[in-house]
Design brief:
This protein is of the alpha+beta class. It has 3 domains: about 160 residues, Beta-Lactamase; about 120 residues, Beta-Lactamase (2-Layer Sandwich); about 70 residues, Arc Repressor Mutant, subunit A (Orthogonal Bundle), CATH 1.10.10.10. The chain has 17 helices and 11 strands. Strand 7 and strand 8 form a beta hairpin. The chain is globular and about 70 Å long.
Amino acid sequence: MEPFEDLSVLIGDIYDAAIDRSLWVGVLGKCAQFTAGSAAALFSKDAARKSGNVVYDYGIDPKFRRLYFDKIASFDPLTVGHYFAKIGEPMSVADIMPYDEFLETRAYLEWGRPQGIVDTLNVALDKTATSAAFFAIFRHERQGRVDDEARRRMRLIAPHVRRSVLIGNVIDLRATEAGMLSDTLDSIRGGILFVDAQGKIVYANARGHALLADGLLLRAEGQKIAFADPEAERALYEVFLAAGKGEAAVGTKGVAVALAQAAEGEQYVAHVLPLTSGARLRAGATYAAVAALFVHKATLNVPSPPEVLARTYKLTPTELRVLLGIVQVGGVPETAIALGIAETTVKTHLRRIFDKTSSSRQADLVKLVAIFSGPFDGE
């Protein structure tokens, strides 16, 4: 499959998916082509429940999609790397664990190899205390392992995918006629304002007007929008100006800009959606706008329990894998089979874990993990 070369068209398609979620499968197919992959997915993982869900995918057999979350996810060694993933930074298998070791894991033998998948390039889009959302490209043996060019291309599109997903979580404008747009936006609980390249407000929904009137986060100065946080104002005005030059110019700017806290102490965040091409162009032209500003309450972005546990005791990713394996799977033999490594290797890492956590029995480790994850279970 030849790479999809027209980056500007692809970016426009990615943003169209923010307002029409039915487009995501096709967009993921183009993303896979652009990065020389065979498949792609938007999915989530839940650290507390040790499960997850595929939101949209392209090129993955439904049988293997079900297999992963029904069985493989609980012992996938790459999940540990996902706990530590920096938002927006691509991670391949080799960034998480030795590749040769990966080839011996059940995750590869039972899921990757039967499909011919030899590598994956993941980007964390959003994280909470118990879960995280990811964008992933899968590489078939025909394409080979992730290389520098794949990483470069992933960095070109990942910020746009992240912005589109975050905005899509706030609003779905599917099948909305431009003439009825204001009625649709007034039903959205978050604030939405359309602006031109100079920050002039050309439209605001009901919640947007309420935020402007309140003045704690943003306000109208003349016809322009102003923000209580000067740093946020500079960042967002840069995005408005860039949006007027085309969507590719927006890049990583304005994906999730933190605003000043409201009086009640709640944190708000702003996202910017360009309106200069594709299905969004009609709405932008109707209001003479280049961008839509979305303002809503932020979800607290805190480390997951496994990440906190590893940082507290200075565990390496491999040590964390073994620790979670012991707790979730059972003893040394079972953990060795699940992780695809020798029992002697498990024992070596287990001794180091005992030393770092001042423990002496596997039961102590079970209690330790429960202390860190307990408050999040069942929520």
